[in-house]
Amino acid sequence: MSTHGFTLTSLERIVAQRAASGDDGSYTAKLVARGTLYAARKLGEEAVELVVAAIAEDEAALTGEAADLLYHLLVVLRLRDVPLSAVLAELERRTAQTGLQEKASRVPDAG
Ligand SMILES: N=c1c2ncn([C@@H]3O[C@H](COP(=O)(O)OP(=O)(O)OP(=O)(O)O)[C@@H](O)[C@H]3O)c2ncn1[C@@H]1O[C@H](COP(=O)(O)O)[C@@H](O)[C@H]1O
User: Fold this and answer.
1) Which regions of the chain are under pLDDT 50?
2) Structural domain boundaries of the chain?
3) Whole-prediction pTM value?
4) CATH code for 8-99?
């Protein structure tokens, strides 16, 4: 496996550039032009496809669907002006406690 230092931050940069390009040949630009509702719906579809691949125990499909999901997540974050660094900072903050401790610290749902 070779990633040559490619990270989600690298992809975030590409997504930002393509989103701003208005290029007819860019899927990212097309997605962004259709707005958050459409892009978020695509993200949901990709999540469902990932769940199907996970249940099917098909590692190749799961890898592809995970890539689709992460790409679409970055597009939605871009549309809502949430930098990946904010998500990573939140994940880093959570490393201070276990998942169950974090769950217990959440404000309970009203009603
Ligand atoms: N990582 C991705 C990536 N992953 C998935 N996809 C696209 O996401 C789409 C999802 O497929 P679907 O079948 O669900 O959707 P679709 O039927 O093609 O689209 P709709 O007509 O339903 O909207 C496909 O068109 C994929 O090509 C991606 N498109 C772009 N990237 C990255 O973004 C970069 C810039 O891409 P452009 O913006 O197209 O230049 C690329 O070089 C890649 O690095």
Assistant:
1) 111
2) 8-99
3) 0.90
4) 1.10.287.1080
- The response to whether residue 73 sits with its C-beta less than 6 Å from ligand 1 reads no
**To 5 degrees, how large is the angle CA 15–CA 73–CA 33?**
55
Contact 23, 29 (CB under 8 A): yes
* CB of 32 closer than 8 Å to CB of 19: yes
Q: Which helix (H) or strand (E) holds 5?
A: none
- Taking the CB of residue 36, how many other CB atoms lie within 10 A of it? 14
For ligand 1, say whether the CB of 18 is within 6 Å of any of its atoms.
yes
Please report the ipTM that was assigned to this predicted complex. 0.91
What's the N-to-C CA distance of the chain in angstroms?
A: 49
Residue having the nearest C-alpha atom to atom 40 of ligand 1:
26
